[in-house]
């Protein structure tokens, strides 16, 4: 499998890249998107906790939580990450049958409030599922451990993908800055060497004085 980081591509389906610049950083640019970013993942945790407390059927609880986690995975991967933080990750298979992972980043039109909400929800929910995993494991509830593992995989996949997008973007910026710095020093060294060679060639050679006896 190969991975790459590229500028985020525009998609006419969701009007990506066509939003207006946020005038006020405290006002949400995409309130409905932000709402659905929190809705499914918070609902999955609440349903899991309520099903444990009220002793609801495991099959009903399992199906409901998995459906909420699946909707959350699709929404965060395909919609909220693109609109709230300008990041996207996806996978494709080329003609040779090789799988390629693409991590894309866009550097403009990011609302600070939406970015904070996005990253907090993206990081805190997997941490909460880790606590629930330990609780189910200590209580020897192996059937619930399976459900929590599914939640960790789906939430962790989005977390890894977007962290990879963010880190890849920073690495590309630092790599370009280091390349510019090295090119600058290389040019300076070449200019200094050439100037030294020209100055040595332009110095007149003093004629040798004859020996007078």
TrEMBL record:
Q: What does the similarity note say? A: Belongs to the TVP23 family.
Q: What is this protein called?
A: Golgi apparatus membrane protein TVP23 homolog
Keywords for this entry? Membrane, Transmembrane, Transmembrane helix
Q: How does it sit in the membrane?
A: Multi-pass membrane protein
Which ranges does the record mark as transmembrane? 32-50, 117-138, 144-163
Asked if the keyword Membrane belongs to this entry, the reply reads: yes
- List the subcellular locations: Membrane
Region (Disordered) residue spans: 1-24
- Which GO BP annotation is one of this protein's? protein secretion
> Organism's domain of life?
Eukaryota
Q: Does the keyword Flavoprotein apply?
A: no
Q: Identify one Gene Ontology CC term for this UniProt entry.
A: Golgi membrane
Q: Where is the composition biased (Acidic residues)?
A: 9-21
From which organism does this entry originate?
A: Gryllus longicercus
């Amino acid at each position: 499998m190969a991975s790459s980081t590229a500028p985020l591509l525009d998609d006419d389906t969701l009007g990506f890249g066509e939003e207006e610049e946020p005038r006020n950083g405290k006002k949400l640019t995409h309130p409905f998107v932000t709402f659905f970013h929190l809705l499914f993942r918070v609902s999955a945790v609440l349903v899991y906790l309520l099903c444990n407390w009220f002793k609801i059927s495991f099959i009903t609880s399992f199906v409901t939580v998995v459906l909420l986690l699946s909707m959350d995975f699709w929404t965060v991967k395909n919609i909220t990450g693109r609109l709230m933080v300008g990041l996207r990750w996806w996978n494709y298979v080329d003609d040779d049958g090789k799988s390629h992972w693409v991590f894309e980043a866009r550097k403009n039109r990011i609302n600070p409030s939406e970015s904070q909400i996005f990253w907090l929800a993206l990081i805190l929910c997997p941490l909460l599922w880790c606590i629930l995993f330990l609780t189910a494991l200590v209580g020897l509830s192996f059937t619930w451990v399976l459900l929590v593992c599914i939640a960790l995989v789906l939430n962790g996949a989005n977390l890894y993908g977007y962290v990879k997008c963010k880190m890849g973007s920073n690495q590309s910026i630092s790599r370009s800055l280091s390349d510019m710095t090295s090119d600058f020093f290389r040019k300076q060294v070449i200019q200094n060497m050439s100037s030294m060679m020209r100055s040595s060639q332009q110095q007149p050679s003093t004629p040798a004085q004859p020996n007078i006896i």
